[in-house]
Amino acid sequence: MSNRGKIHKAVIPVAGLGTRFLPATKATPKEMLPVVDKPAIQYVVEEAVAAGINDVLFVTGRNKESLENHFDRSPSLEQTLAERGASDMQAKISGLANLAAMHYVRQGVPMGLGHAVSMAKAHVGNQAFAVLLGDDLVDVKTPILPEMFAAQAKLGGSILALMEVPDDQIHLYGCAAVEPTDNPDIVRVTELVEKPAAGTAPSNLAVIGRYVIDPAVFELLENLAPGRGGEIQLTDALASLINLPAESGGGVHAVIFRGKRYDTGDKLSYLKSVVSIALDREDLGPDLRAWLTSYLAGQI
Ligand code: UTP
């Protein structure tokens, strides 16, 4: 069965507990934390839509109602904005519900990213699909999904996004061993390990939160035992895809990501995302840059 072709469905898991960002994430999902004036998840959905996705399935859990509300119509707010003559903002607010067809499935118990993705089986069907982690922000100036979709159309199978990280940080990520291909930006993945123990990582290439996955992953996830941290790990199912024959949906390649991305579930990375995105904005950048420069010079 060939699964090459246009990717139009994305699965966005947002059911994690966000424990690294407590207490802010006790009652607010980490994906709803604002990055300047939009919640982090809005950047993720806009990135998917810009790459051609027209159908989004959120894998949600308890406390995620604010996220559903964000992507729904809000008639009274829209009316108030219209009455105040704020038609630009009214259009932005009403447009959020039309970014893509939005669907929701609940994970129930957050048993890991692999378990979250397995919830998407019925919705996804038999086509390759994208997965975007809801707390992983890719800078709009350095998108990676188009390259991943093109690689999937050419090579089939599943496509990961890998980023070089310092040796002392690779234990925080899924890690890939790779072989080169004739394209310097695309590698063949030969081994995947989730959060390797210090000194055991096969490379310093970290898996980041963008995936194109063959639906063969669902059967593998169903039969997967809990892995690292007692969770059903997506990395373990992807590792099994490496050795599956191509005609059964196997084969894993990766695009090397050389742009900017932020993990908004991590406090320091979140702060960097806010500063960097604000500095890039015409309305805020110049004033923020001037203030930061004075602040860092000890003048404030
Ligand atoms: P993380 O490991 O970053 O999320 O998962 P977490 O568990 O919320 O993080 P901390 O360590 O407690 O702060 C990556 C993505 O997978 C989702 C998360 O919402 C996040 O977008 N996820 C994770 C689920 O949807 N379900 C899970 O069971 C685990």
Structure description:
This protein has two domains: 9-265, Spore Coat Polysaccharide Biosynthesis Protein SpsA, Chain A, CATH 3.90.550; 266-300, no CATH class. 32% of the residues lie in helices and 23% in strands. The protein is built from eleven helices and 13 strands. The protein has helices at residues 40-50, 65-70, 75-83, 87-95, 113-118, 121-124, 145-155, 217-222, 234-242, 267-279, 285-296; strands at 9-13, 34-35, 38-39, 55-60, 101-106, 129-132, 136-138, 158-164, 174-180, 186-194, 205-213, 252-256, 261-263. β2 (34-35) and β3 form a beta hairpin. It binds uridine 5'-triphosphate (UTP). Uridine 5'-triphosphate (UTP) binds at residues 13-20, 59, 107, 110-113, 115-116, 133-135, 265.
Protein topology:
Layout: E1 9-13, E2 34-35, E3 38-39, H1 40-50, E4 55-60, H2 65-70, H3 75-83, H4 87-95, E5 101-106, H5 113-118, H6 121-124, E6 129-132, E7 136-138, H7 145-155, E8 158-164, E9 174-180, E10 186-194, E11 205-213, H8 217-222, H9 234-242, E12 252-256, E13 261-263, H10 267-279, H11 285-296
Parallel strand pairs: 1-4, 1-6, 4-5, 8-12
Antiparallel strand pairs: 2-3, 6-11, 7-13, 8-11, 9-10, 10-12
Helix pairs in contact: 3-4, 10-11
The structure holds uridine 5'-triphosphate.
